[in-house]
Amino acid sequence: MKGDLFSSEHVVRPATAPGMYVENAKCVKYAVDGEMLARQGSMVAFRGDLRFERKGQGVGGMLKRAVTGEGLPLMTVRGRGEAWFAHEAQNCFVVEIGPGDEFTVNGRNVLCFDATLAYEIKTVKGSGIAGGGLFNSVFTGQGRLALVCEGNPLVIPVTPEQPVYVDTDAVVGWTASLQTSLHRSQSIGSMLRGGSGEAVQLMLQGQGHVVVRPSEATPQKAQQH
After folding, report:
1. Separation CA 79–CA 218 (nearest Å)
2. Counting Cβ atoms within 10 Å, is residue 140 exposed (0-12), middle (13-18) or buried (19+)?
3. What confidence tier does 92 reach under pLDDT thresholds 50, 70, 90?
């Protein structure tokens, strides 16, 4: 067979070491030698001796998901082989998490991660009930985390002198050293006149980075995730 489809740009190469690699802008390859975790339904291809099992959340996890609407429907992948993961042709990125690091991320943006990482669903501090329930997954440990994002993300530095305000439907995640609170940027008068559509944002203060996608989640998209 000949043609552009079979060029070296598209044909995958064997992995040289275990772990995760960005295969292309829309897909992550994981060379499994033991165990890893991935978003349920995100595997698009695999080869080798691999087993895919739904990962239970336990009673506590199910209750949190029912109350918060935030959850990580995960599957465990075990064995030896190569697997490719993707989600709705969204762009893929890899985050390195080291000892002492903590990364807060929206569950809808998680694709797969090393089994050496731990995660916990937590309330976003300062959001309160007025935030409509702001809950994210907090990752700790040492390993790699693959994320998906609609479009290329914006990574915005946050400093004590310059807090950053982000739309709660557009934020992907942020580093642990940042403090969060809700900020109202619209006056009561403006709201009574119909509003600008940008009434409340999440304010991040301190020293670190916040990751934002260049689009807001529509109600339909949010329900799908």
Report:
1. 38
2. middle
3. very high
Q: What are phi and psi of 103, to 5 degrees?
A: -125, 125
Residue 158 pairs in a beta bridge with 208
Q: Which residues pair with 79 in a beta bridge?
A: 34, 50
Q: Are the C-beta atoms of residues 138 and 119 closer than 8 Å to each other? A: yes
Q: What is the mean pLDDT of residues 37-63?
A: 81
- For residues 164 and 180, give the distance between their C-alpha atoms in angstroms, rounded to a whole number: 10
User: Of 145, 128, 125, 119, which Cα lies nearest the Cα of 22?
Assistant: 145
Taking residues 52-60, report their average pLDDT.
69
β pairing state of 154-158 and 200-205: unpaired
9-29 pLDDT per residue, tens? 778 887 878 999 999 999 999
pLDDT top residue among 30 and 183:
30
- DSSP class of 2: -
Q: Which amino acid is at 165?
A: Y
DSSP H stretches of helix in the chain: 58-68, 188-192, 219-224
Which residues are paired to 92 by β-bridges? 148
* Residue type (1 letter), 62: M
Q: What value does the CA radius of gyration of the chain take, rounded to a whole number of Å?
A: 19
Q: How many other CB atoms are there within 10 angstroms of residue 153's CB atom? A: 20
Q: What pairs with residue 85 in β-bridges? A: 28, 43
CB 168 within 8 A of CB 182: no
Instruction: Give pLDDT, residue 73.
Output: 83
